[in-house]
Amino acid sequence: MHLFRRGMRDGISIALGYLSVSFSFGILSVQSGLTVWQAVLISLTNLTSAGQVAGVGLIAANASMFELILAEIVINIRYSLMSLVLSQKADSSFRLPQRLLASYGITDEIFAVASIQKDPVKPRYMYGLILVPFLGWTLGTWLGAAAGTLLPEQITNSLGIALYGMFLAIILPPARKSRAIFAVISVAAVISVLLHFFVKWMSGGFAMIIAALAASVFGAILFPIPDEDQAKEAEQ
Amino acid sequence: MTRILLAIVVMAVTTYIIRMVPFTFFRKKIKNRFIQSVLYYIPYAVLSAMTIPSIFYATQDLPSAIVGTIVAVVLAYFGLPLIVVALSASVASYLALVLLPLILK
Q1: Rounded average pLDDT over A95-122
Q2: What is the pLDDT of residues A13-36, one digit of tens each?
Q3: Domains of chain B: total
Q4: Which of A35, B24, B43, B99 is the most buried (most CB within 10 A)?
Q5: Which residues of A touch B85 (CB under 8 A)?
Q6: Cα Rg for chain B, rounded, in angstroms?
Q7: Which residues contact A63 (CB under 8 A, 6 or more apart)?
């Protein structure tokens, strides 16, 4: 099968998931005071869930650009790690222009699908794998932002929880398998709650940054991930 | 208006650079085990801190948010697909929003 089409086929299930989540992002954006086209523009240019939610929250809270940049870096720094891994997975036909283009579409789910491929990933496969979820993400945002306000309040309010449901679906299965991840998400949640109730002057963006960094450093100290060399020795 | 557009551009450029730089310029792996470990845990910590306590305010009504959260936690714990968890939490919250006022009246 043509590589581009194979990528598109693999992207369909990601796109379906994105459609509903971005619908709730569209609603959230409009509720936060953005216009429909601003919401669509954010999805079109950012293609990321958590970073966009935090961004919209910070825009609504009139946060500084510094706060915005810092929040995006902390939330999205995981993409650097994925990019690093994918960079080694990339076929030699990935030259500078292909890398600059495909970088745009490295999301959690696209990374997950691309990185489990057996063979080195070729640019045309990546383009297909990115295109379909990208369309789902943007279309869902537009639908949510445009039609979300037409729906009864009970429906739009209840869709607001979809995004958080997806976040739980991302973190709980690995937390079930790994005591370390369970500890890290518990610490992050506790710090986040404490900051929310007891440090009220702190914006949600900074509270999230502090909670996440503290919990990750806690995890790194108590449960350092296995060294690759040690892991190789252990295998031998 | 201009401020919002500027904020959107700032978000997009920041996010793009984070993805682009390692994919385009770094071909070596990070060796420092501590930094590796922090980076490994960050996505989980970020998503957890973003979800809690915000999820309890997501439906503008605490009881329905609690119902949605419980459904999401149970389905997520058993590893159901993202879309199933997300939509089930919404449906459960919706039912709670509609039904709980009738029951508790």
Answers
A1: 88
A2: 788 778 878 988 998 899 889 999
A3: 1
A4: B43
A5: 165-166, 168-169
A6: 20
A7: A71, A203, A205
The 10 Å Cβ neighbour count of residue B80 is 16
Is 80 exceeded by the pLDDT of residue A115? no
The residues that bridge with A136 in the sheet, in sequence order, are none
Please tell me the predicted confidence (pLDDT) of residue A127: 97
Nearest to A38 among B4, B58, B61 (CB): B4
Cα B98 from Cα B96, distance rounded (Å): 5
Note down the domain range covering B50. Answer: 2-104
Residue A236 pLDDT > 50: no
Mean pLDDT of all residues in chain B?
Answer: 89
Residue B53 preceded by cis peptide, ω within 30 = yes
A162 touches chain B (CB under 8 A): yes
* Listed residue (A211, A142, A46) closest to B54, CA to CA: A211
**Upper half-sphere CA count for residue A37 (Cβ side, 13 Å):** 2
Whether B19 sits inside 8 A of A106 (CB atoms) is: yes
Regions of chain B short of the pLDDT cut 70: 27-30
Q: What is the ipTM of this complex?
A: 0.86
pLDDT score of A125: 96
Spell A25-41 as b/e; 16+ CB within 10 A means b: bbbbbbbbebebebbbb
Q: Cα–Cα distance between A81 and B69 in angstroms, integer?
A: 30
Give every CB contact of residue A195 below 8 A, 6+ residues apart in sequence.
Answer: A202, A207, A210, A211
Dump pLDDT digits (tens) for A62-108: 889 999 999 899 888 878 878 887 887 888 899 999 999 999 999 98
Q: Determine which of B55, B75, B82 to mutate to test the interface with A (most A C-beta atoms within 10 Å).
A: B82
Contacts of B16 (CB under 8 A, 6+ apart): A103, A104
Region A163-190: mean pLDDT is 92
Which CA distances in Å does A89 have to A19, A226, B52, B61? 28, 21, 34, 46
Segment (H or E) for B56 = none
